[in-house]
Amino acid sequence: MAKILVVTSGKGGVGKTTTTAALGAALAQAGQSVAVVDFDVGLRNLDLVMGAERRVVYDLINVVNGDAKLNQALIRDKRLENLSLLPASQTRDKDALTDEGVARVMEELREKFDWVICDSPAGIERGATLAMRHADLAVVVTNPEVSSVRDSDRIIGLLDSKTVKAERGETMEKHLILTRYDPARADRGDMLKIDDVLEILSIPLLAIIPESMEVLRASNVGCPVTLNNPLCAPSRAYIDAVRRLKGDTVPMAVPSDKKSLLNKLFTRRAA
Amino acid sequence: MSLRKMFNRRGSAPVARDRLQLILAHERGNAGGSDLVMVLREEILAVIAKHVVVEQDRVQIRLERGKDVSTLGVDIELPVPLVPRRQAA
């Protein structure tokens, strides 16, 4: 029986899809069988970030409507055989997803895998609430920036009210992944501090992903960052996050501004 | 950047934190409930309309949220001369 994890944020562009791909790949690299599911109907991108965009035949909506079997729609990763992708439809819209259909597909996925990771669309509409509906736990992806934190707060409210777990009176397990963290800006006092974000959202921290060129490089070539360069700082943070999800206690690596004083004095500040 | 600015720099992050804490405290309070301002508007109007003829679209309601206190402002434009509502026959 799988654990169903939703990656959500409210705001767009904060790193949900990157995080879904990275966590999915890292869990698979750790020997778990994993399905990543794209709920962003009409604007699918998980296929592109995973490098499977030319292998999509059937999608989530085909399976929900019974036009295709789950096994026909699942795309097995070429690098990791225990990692599969269920893509979203690019041509239909989110209204094509029925509550019952999604519930049935999630149950079927739960039988087949150890982990099912749902990549939520941005916003708080139907697509986002359906993505979180059947989750056992949630990863809230937040940038240290006011609009992202506010939207995450809203999403946390939905996780505590609109999910099957919440409706049963159970507590939804929630974790924060802080992405695009720039220690130099935080040191200068121009970026919300980690502690500030944690205090405001009051959910436990799962990982801090530093702003890094490696994330863009990985999506450019269509490979989850944890596979593309497992040793870079963002990958190490995602791999630690996966160990924590599996129940290990791992000390939190806080990115720091490693530049020397001399270096700082002679480096021009970015705007 | 001036020297004074360089040594006196607090950064913009504390401002961001304070603004967020303030707005979220209010948004969390309102979450789940109906729109407080709309409810107040309807009820206040109903009370006044019992006594005076009021045009529904000549009403403005503002809610100003402060750190320690919030104020609710209600502006109702009354016709001149004042038209008292007739007692029901």
From TrEMBL, chain A:
Job description of the protein: ATPase required for the correct placement of the division site. Cell division inhibitors MinC and MinD act in concert to form an inhibitor capable of blocking formation of the polar Z ring septums. Rapidly oscillates between the poles of the cell to destabilize FtsZ filaments that have formed before they mature into polar Z rings.
Subunit structure: Interacts with MinC and FtsZ.
Gene Ontology molecular-function annotations: ATP binding; ATP hydrolysis activity
UniProt-recorded name of the protein: Septum site-determining protein MinD
Listed SUPFAM superfamilies: P-loop containing nucleoside triphosphate hydrolases
One biological process term in Gene Ontology: division septum assembly
InterPro entries: CobQ/CobB/MinD/ParA_Nub-bd_dom, MinD, MinD_FleN, P-loop_NTPase, ParA/MinD_ATPase
GO cellular component: cytoplasmic side of plasma membrane; cytosol
CDD domains hit by this protein: MinD
List of residues binding ATP: 11-18
Record's keyword terms, sorted: ATP-binding, Cell cycle, Cell division, Nucleotide-binding, Septation
Record bears the keyword Nucleotide-binding: yes
Residue stretches in coiled coil: none
The family this protein is said to belong to: Belongs to the ParA family. MinD subfamily.
Domain of life of the organism encoding this protein: Bacteria
Domain CobQ/CobB/MinD/ParA nucleotide binding: 5-222
Record's keyword annotation contains Cell division: yes
UniProtKB/TrEMBL annotation, chain B:
Alphabetical keyword list: Cell cycle, Cell division
InterPro entries, per the entry: MinE, MinE_sf
SUPFAM superfamilies per record: Cell division protein MinE topological specificity domain (SSF55229)
GO biological process assignments: cell division
Tagged with keyword Nucleotide-binding: no
Superkingdom in the source lineage: Bacteria
Family designation: Belongs to the MinE family.
Purpose: Prevents the cell division inhibition by proteins MinC and MinD at internal division sites while permitting inhibition at polar sites. This ensures cell division at the proper site by restricting the formation of a division septum at the midpoint of the long axis of the cell.
Name this polypeptide is given: Cell division topological specificity factor
Source organism per UniProt: Methylobacterium adhaesivum
Encoding gene (name): minE
